[in-house]
Amino acid sequence: MMFTKAFGLLGLVSTMTAALPMTLERRDTNSTGGGVEIINNMGKDIYLWSVSNSADSTMVTLTSGGNTYSESWKTNPDGGGISIKMSTTPDQADVLQYEYTLVSPLIYWDLSCINIGNGSEFTTAGFAVTSNDSGSCPSATCKAGDTACADAYLFPTDDQATHGCPDTVQMTLNLGSSSG
Ligand SMILES: *[C@@H]1O[C@H](CO)[C@@H](O)[C@H](O)[C@H]1NC(C)=O
Ligand SMILES: *[C@@H]1O[C@H](CO)[C@@H](O)[C@H](O)[C@H]1NC(C)=O
Ligand SMILES: *[C@@H]1O[C@H](CO)[C@@H](O)[C@H](O)[C@H]1NC(C)=O
Predict the structure, then answer these.
(1) Atom 7, ligand 1: which residue's CA is nearest?
(2) Is the CB of 34 under 6 A from ligand 3?
(3) Residue 37 dihedral angles phi and psi, to the nearest 5°
(4) Ranges 94-103, 151-160, 168-177: which has the least confidence
(5) What is the pTM of this model?
(6) Roughly how many angstroms between the first and final C-alpha of the chain, as a whole number?
(7) Which atom of ligand 1 is closest in space to residue 31's alpha carbon?
(8) Is the CB of 166 under 6 A from ligand 3?
(9) Domain boundaries, given as residue ranges, for the chain
(10) What are the φ and ψ backbone dihedral angles of 129, each rounded to 5 degrees?
């Protein structure tokens, strides 16, 4: 998967960032200008955790009705990437992941359905990633009801689902796709 792929390059990046003061909110200390926004169109509350290897992750509740969560690209002080885990329940029973690894000047990202169950409400509703840089950054769409979505990881070997984009990109993940 992407974490393994980017690991060699990331060693270099983490060496450089290791000397920086560590805080949970790194967005203001070293921002490339890009990031991801997650929009809840599911018609119900969604629970979200932004997880790196070392940092504790706080549960964020996105109440229904188009509420959004935004994050500027962060680096993981332990190397590897960041996983934003989204669940329809606070106990993480049904987890859709948006994973990314910042290796300037690129951001590698993917959607992972590996931990979502059969009959997931995410699958039923569909979800899509778009960006403000469609010329150099691919999008990903899992249509409502598509249990075999080619744009997401269904199995750990689905490497074609990892995308590289300029790290200045602003991405949008719609849960319960608003764009159809
Ligand atoms: C972010 O960190 C990298 C690596 O340490 C550095 O080269 C870059 O200038 C930093 N960017 C900002 C906006 O501070
Ligand atoms: C999900 O559905 C597939 C196909 O119907 C089935 O083989 C599999 O056992 C199911 N998995 C779970 C966790 O229920
Ligand atoms: C996308 O949005 C980010 C953040 O606002 C901005 O820095 C970047 O230049 C934009 N990219 C394009 C191609 O417009």
Answers:
(1) 16
(2) yes
(3) -120, 135
(4) 151-160
(5) 0.75
(6) 28
(7) 13
(8) no
(9) 23-176
(10) -110, 130
Q: What tokens appear for 108 in the block?
A: 């590698």
Indicate the DSSP class of residue 3.
H
What digits encode the pLDDT tens for the residues 154-172?
Answer: 766 666 668 889 999 999 9
* 170 Cβ inside 6 Å of ligand 3: yes
User: pLDDT digit string (tens) for 5-46?
Assistant: 444 444 444 444 444 444 344 444 456 789 999 999 999 999
Element (H, E) at 101: strand 95-103
Amino acid found at 137: C
* Best mutation site among 30, 31, 107, 167 for ligand 1 pocket (most ligand atoms within 8 Å of CB): 30
pLDDT attached to residue 157: 63
Joined tokens for residue 17: 């960032």
Fold of the CATH domain 23-176: Thaumatin (2.60.110)
Classified as helix, coil or strand, 46 is strand
Burial 61-80 (b: 16+ CB within 10 A, else e): ebeeeeeebebbbbbbbebb
